[in-house]
Write a structure and sequence with these properties.
Layout: E1 2-8, H1 12-19, H2 25-28, E2 32-39, E3 48-55, E4 58-70, E5 74-80, E6 86-96, E7 99-110, H3 112-115, H4 119-141
Antiparallel strand pairs: 1-7, 2-3, 3-4, 4-5, 5-6, 6-7
C-alpha cells in the first residue's frame, strides 16, 4: 500500500476546491494527457471522468469514478486503466492549524496491478504520489485564473 502525506500551507478549503473541480483534475493528477467528464456532477458519488495516458507511441484510456465524497474531508476514487486493472485512491484533507494535512492512500484492487503488487510497485507509486501531492499544493496556492484556477 502506498500512503503519503503532505502538509500543504494553504487552508483545507483551498485544497478541497482543487479536488472538487473536475476542470482542475490535470493540474494535480500525474499522467493524463486528456480528461473529460463522462457522467454525473464531479465529485458526487458515481460521477466519472474519462482520461487518456500517453507514453511515447502508446496510449491507455481509463476512467476515474468517485466512490466516496464526504466534503470537505474525504474523497475516494476508483481508477480504472483498462487491462491494467483498477486502484483505490483515498484522499483525506485534515485541518492542521491554519494549513491542510493531506493523506493520500493508494492500492490496487483488480487486474495485473493487484496480482503483481509488491514493494517495488509501491516504491514507484510513492514517487508518483509525491509528485501528485506537490502538484496539488501548487494548484491550491495558485492565484485566481492561474493553472486552471477559476478567476
Amino acid at each position: 500500500m502506498a500512503v503519503r502525506h503532505r502538509l500543504i500551507r494553504r487552508p483545507p478549503e483551498d485544497v478541497w476546491a482543487v479536488l472538487s473541480d473536475a476542470s482542475r483534475f490535470s493540474d494535480w493528477v500525474v499522467g493524463p494527457s486528456a480528461t473529460t467528464k463522462k457522467a454525473g456532477d464531479w465529485p458526487q458519488c458515481g460521477s466519472t471522468l474519462e482520461y487518456t495516458l500517453r507514453v511515447g507511441p502508446w496510449s491507455v484510456s481509463g476512467e476515474t469514478i468517485v466512490r466516496r465524497h464526504d466534503p470537505p474531508r474525504h474523497l475516494e476514487l476508483e481508477v480504472g486503466s483498462g487491462w491494467l486493472g483498477t486502484a483505490r485512491i483515498a484522499i483525506e484533507v485534515r485541518p492542521w492549524g491554519q494549513h491542510a494535512l493531506v493523506i493520500f492512500d493508494e492500492h490496487p484492487l483488480r487486474g495485473p496491478g493487484g496480482l503483481l503488487h509488491n514493494s517495488a510497485v509501491d516504491a514507484v507509486l510513492q514517487l508518483r504520489n509525491r509528485s501528485m501531492l506537490d502538484r496539488l499544493a501548487k494548484a491550491a496556492a495558485a492565484p485566481a485564473g492561474v493553472a486552471g484556477k477559476p478567476a
